[in-house]
Design a protein that fits this description.
five-stranded parallel beta sheet
């Protein structure tokens, strides 16, 4: 047993049972690292399918896209489940609802190509490794079909949007229904397409990377009604300041001023109020089951796994410029988690959106 040779309080603080255990400081581990640092811009986004003007106009996002294009990301990630994750989840009854809510239907594309998810994923990798600098339209259509079969419709849109309008038709693995589906997505209210895929296409990137994860927040709750009631009642305790901030953001979104909306939802003060009124209120929820803590625990597990997935997209590309488009409530967690990674700097979203 370690001898205590100093004051009792100091001994207590350094003991295994103490409250202030000494830790290894990793903040300067990369101080002597050669080469450029990886830049990560986390763009908090509203969900375009929720709220906003009655008639959605993708052109309203052009001021946002112009500023993101000036940042020149090499890698773009989105809040979506990967085809690989969905395929694993399909083997578990516990994920039935998550699959229905978040996983795209891959059956039509797989039937058109005669392959399953795993073959589609492998063929996507092989195709991208041999991708020419000037791909033919037929190659883009075929890669779009592979992405659909692999459960990655947003990356399929990256290929589709780089086709001249006259080349956006069936063929090379895309049947009529698949081509019509991609055409419909062009005007859909989805930030994964209208921001991430359109930006990727504008910059000549070949894909986006889905990084979401719903295995960590798939809580096993015995009494779902009681859980929902407890969390809802906790949210009702939000401060007047938080409610006013939320109304301000909703009004901006409804007005169709998307640049002002994105500036607002990426503001540290707006984010602080939003997080306090949601997760802060949940943590103060008094039920004996600690429903609020379970809710926040699921949320944090999800963010941990998502941040790891973001890191995986640039681990082989040190010094890359990364854009992560994610629901604004995730942004504080993403910023904090990714900032801890070696050789990574977090880019100020407010400055990019100026």
């Amino acid at each position: 047993m370690k001898k205590c040779v100093a004051a009792f309080a100091l001994c207590l603080s350094l003991s295994p049972a103490g409250f202030a255990q000494e830790r290894v400081d990793l903040s300067t581990l990369d101080a002597a690292m050669p080469g450029p640092r990886t830049q990560v811009l986390v763009l908090g986004t509203v969900h375009l399918s929720q709220g906003g003007p009655e008639k959605f106009d993708p052109a309203a996002l052009q001021p946002v896209l112009q500023r993101l294009a000036a940042y020149k990301p090499d890698i773009i990630t989105i809040e979506g489940l990967s085809g690989e994750t969905c395929e694993v989840m399909r083997h578990r009854v516990a994920y039935k609802q998550a699959i229905e809510d978040y996983c795209p239907d891959v059956a039509p594309a797989q039937a058109a190509l005669g392959i399953d998810t795993w073959a589609a994923l492998d063929q996507v990798d092989a195709t991208l490794k041999a991708w020419p600098s000037q791909p033919a339209p037929s190659q883009r259509r075929h890669l779009a079909a592979l992405f659909l079969a692999a459960g990655d419709p947003s990356s399929a849109m990256v290929q589709w949007l780089q086709l001249p309008d006259a080349e956006r038709h069936a063929g090379d693995g895309l049947d009529d229904a698949l081509a019509q589906g991609l055409r419909k997505r062009e005007s859909g209210r989805n930030e994964n397409v209208q921001i991430a895929a359109r930006l990727a296409a504008r910059l000549g990137l070949q894909r986006v990377f889905p990084v979401d994860d719903h295995t960590g927040d798939n809580l096993d709750i015995d009494d779902e009604d009681a859980f929902g009631k407890a969390i809802t009642e906790a949210w009702h305790g939000a401060s007047a300041e938080a409610l006013k901030s939320r109304e301000h953001v909703d009004a901006l979104h409804k007005s169709g001023d998307m640049l002002a909306t994105y500036r607002a939802v990426n503001s540290p003060e707006v984010l602080r109020l939003a997080i306090a009124s949601d997760f802060g209120q949940a943590l103060a929820e008094p039920s004996p089951q600690r429903y609020g803590r379970q809710y926040v625990g699921g949320w944090e597990t999800r963010n941990l796994r998502m941040a790891a997935n973001v890191h995986a997209t640039f681990r082989e590309h040190p010094g890359a410029r990364v854009l992560s488009v994610v629901g604004s409530s995730h942004k504080p967690w993403f910023d904090g988690l990714l900032e801890q990674m070696q050789g990574v700097d977090i880019v100020d979203a407010e400055q990019v959106l100026e």
